[in-house]
Amino acid sequence: MSQIFQYFVNGLVFSSIIVLGSVGLSIVYSIADFANFAHGDTMTVGAYGALVTLPTLSGIGGELLGLPLGFYGALLVGMALAAAIAVVTELTIYRPLDTDAIGMLITSIGVAFVYRAALQATFGSDFRSYSIERSGPIPGIENALNVTITERATVMIVCAIVLVTALHLLLQYTTLGRKMRAMSDNPELARVSGIRTDRVLLATWVVGAALAGAGGVFLGLYSQIDPRIGFDLLLIVFAAVILGGIGSVYGAMAGGLSIGMVHEFTPLLTDVGIPIGTDYASAVAFIIMVVILLVRPSGIAGGEAT
Amino acid sequence: MSDSDADPPDDGAKGGGGARSAAEATDATDSPLEAARGTSGIGNRVTAFMDALTGPERNIVSAIATFVGLLVLATVFGVIRPAYLLYLLSLAGMYLLLSMGLNVQWGYTGLINFSVAAFFGLGAYGTALMSSSDAPILGNFPPILGLFFGLALAGILAVLIGIPTLNLREDYLAIASLGLAEVVRVFVTNEGQWTGGAVGLSGIPRFFDGWPVLGNLSRGVPTAAANLLLVTTFVVVTYLFLRRVHRSPWGRVQRTIRADEDLAKALGKDTYRFKMESFVLGSMIMALAGVFFAHLQLFLSPGVMLPTQTFYVWIAVILGGTGSDRGAMFGGFVIIAIQEGTRFIGGGLPIGPGPLRLFLIGVIIIAIIRYRPEGLLPPQRELVWPGASSDGGDAND
Question: Distance, in angstroms, between B382 CA and closest chain A CA?
Fold first, then answer.
């Protein structure tokens, strides 16, 4: 039983990365109206942004939730860098294009390759990791609940909850959020009603890419960093988005949580005697996505709009 | 390779040879006479052939001729070995096959298939497992059986991917196919007891092993020439087959689906069935390329299924011109230029060959969609039954 609870906690940790990725992907999907295959590499950009600034910022004293304050600074830098790159890409590459959603999709693959080539040329393709000391499981929780969870894992979960809540407040209670929802509903109608759709689109890229950047930083915190991490995760993130129903932000949250759980519950299959190892965790997530496509193509959230 | 002196780019959209510019029409009326008069001279034939082409085609034929000419020159002067030249040409032929396969799906029916690498890999692993002396299962069968096994595997996978996705929005197929391709790659990497796993699979015989004459060739140039012959056969057979198929009523339905699926449905066509047929056919052509690759390299590792491989083929298709088999031929040469060229120019640049290749793929994709979305050689005569065009038949037909 405690083993299952442990899987659940692992699932929460991994989900916090997937949710940040899938929510950002979904918001861009619904407003810019194409499947952005560069989203995974945007996450990688965020991870490298934090990697570069962490040594400079680690001088800042103080700790929060067991991690040095400098890490949170690096997190913000990673998010800002991802957002800046996304805005530049939108202005220089996507905006001048005169093509349909499929043309945009294919272009975004080109963009993904350019991002990755730039990172690989600058940093090489070796694994790197953040210069933060690894600490063991938090003793209090381990004793009380018999579950191991590290401090960095708690930071990831807490930050993901904070960011997703912030997005919820932004979408529901601010003017920008209302404009974004209007645009995702019907871009033409939004434009005739006086919304400056190109500005809202830029804001969308900022929000989506910043969340992706945060996801990338946590991904680096979770394991190690190399130029492929984002692209490798992209498919799982897409699975989460499809599971939630393309274009639905709240669906993407639910989808991200479910896919993250499935990913981390895969060892259970071996425990109960099904010979599917953890190497297949992503594959299992995918098969579930395909099954969902078969029975409920509009996703578990039923295709409700943002 | 600009089209400044060429036809208006919408030439293809108007439906082929009949819509050529005035200058082209004059050329076309002159050329049969010239060709008839000068059948003795090769020069005249070349002139007649060039006259029958459109402006962009001429530029590209010249570009390919220059490229091949440079390669031949480099061979003559000993910069590259003759066997390597033949090997490069065989690889170009293999990419041509892959592009023709993707053209069936994307070019004619409009299906976004991002699992090219998986079908290619399945074809390669199918024949390798059947024929390799080191294969963990099967093994030591003649390669010709492997060919059918590889094609069958690819066909089955295509049906499995197609069932859940072909009825949905087109971007679902893009995502699902890329994902399932990764599942296949992970499977091949992890199930070493069946596939040889991450270390790879060696001991693959040459395709012609056991054949009367072709089986006993010495290594080096004769073998490389035999491989080139094999891939040329595959390409020609596939090309003729596809040309026939796409001019049939079946092909017309496929193009209708690409243009407007609702229209095809309104005409009473079972578009799901047609899409499935197109998906399976294209995937099996990709597997054929994989079969050739296995017997060319004689060694396989799961790396052949990396997504990058898929996007090379995508470049070949969209660069050449979606739906255009002549375009695919050009695209094949460009891929070889990127893949092999980056090995040679790597030294002088601050960027390694790996990232440089990625960068080139990315920039080419972005540039095509931005500046020439219809590709360099948009389809024209592919879609027209010979004799249906006003100038009655072309040099190519």
Answer: 23
Measured distance CA(A213)–CA(A222) in Å, rounded: 14
Coil/strand/helix, residue A137: strand
CA of A7, closest CA in chain B: separation in Å? 23
B358 to chain A nearest CA, in Å?
6
Which residue carries 């033409």 as its tokens?
A: A188
How is residue A63 annotated by DSSP? E
Residue in A35, A99, A113 closest to B373 by CB: A99
* Contact state of A110 with B182 under an 8 Å Cβ cutoff: no
Across the A:B interface, residue pairs with CB atoms under 8 Å apart total 127
Placement of tokens 């759980």 in the chain: A261
Over residues B114-161, the pLDDT tens digits come to 999 999 999 999 999 998 888 888 878 888 899 999 999 999 999 988
User: Which residue of A293, A295, A298 is the best one to mutate when testing the B interface, meaning the one whose CB has the most B CBs within 10 A?
Assistant: A293
User: Which tens digits make up the pLDDT trace of B4-57?
Assistant: 443 444 433 333 333 334 444 444 444 444 444 444 566 676 676 666 666 667
Contacts 24+ apart (CB under 8 A), B165-170: B165/A290, B165/A293, B166/B111, B166/B272, B166/B275, B166/B276, B166/B279, B167/A297, B167/B272, B168/A293, B168/A297, B169/A246, B170/A102, B170/B110, B170/B111, B170/B112
Residue B292 CA to residue B120 CA, distance in Å, equals 10
Do strands A63-64 and A67-68 pair parallel, antiparallel, or not at all (unpaired)? antiparallel
Measured between beta carbons, which residues in chain A are less than 8 angstroms from residue B358? Answer: 113-114, 116-117, 120
Q: CA-CA distance, A167 to B351, in Å (whole number)? A: 39
> DSSP of B381-396, one letter per residue?
GGGS-TTTSTT---TT
